[in-house]
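Example record

One chain of 277 residues, shown exactly as stored in the release files.
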Amino acid sequence: MTRSFDVHAENDQRALLAIALDVAREAAELVLSGWRKKFTVDLKGPVDLVTDFDRASEALVRDRLHARTPFTVVGEEAGGDANRLSDEVRWYVDPIDGTTNFVHGHPFFCVSIGLLAHGQPLLGAIVAPALRYEFTGIAGKFATRNGEPCHVSAATEFSEALLATGFPYDRRVSEDNNFDAFVAIKKKCQAVRRCGSAALDLCFVAEGTYDGYWEKKLNAWDITGGSAIVLGAGGRLSTYGGEPFNAMRGDLVATNGKIHDALLRELAEVQSKRTTK
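Predicted structure tokens for this chain:
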């Protein structure tokens, strides 16, 4: 029988974060053992890949979190466990965020574990083994990179901002594919990066490399851990419309706070042009 946790108590939050980091490290070691090696790759969609390492990583994470905590685990590959004890506190797990990168030998991939409590991101642990980065954070309290405190950037000018974004799996057939926003915003900021892992994009906002990030059609396992880390580093989260962040909505804007409103205005302008065509 696992111990109980009060997710509002800081000592228990830190204990849960330590568990999440332990588990993410173990899963990341497993994933790294297959990087640039031979493995099985299947298609979940035209451009959506899954490997036997995704499945093995998720199985490991589920097993370890079930053994040490009482909370539901929801993962990208196997969904949730409806029979678990808590429906208000859930782990959201991406066993390999950046699977396409992993398949092609690109180092920008990670294991992401986040705890969503009563609809809000509470804490996250993200391990990117090929990059040798570990990120942790508790929303509103702290964030770390490789054990050292990290904070969002101090950038205030949108024209000087380095941003990140991503594109949905249905980009070949959907008009809402972010291409128009990418082009429009790239013309007005310093640069936009697209590296293929929402979890790591959020971590790079948290530690100040990126000044902001936006993306649509995301799942809760993509963003729960990274969102908690951004909030721990002093950043700001919202929907595209500026409403409070909701992990189930799928649209996310994350910034250092100082350029947030400017990024929202640019996204609104793109949306306005799309609807008036």
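Notes: Confidence is low (pLDDT under 50) at residues 82-86.
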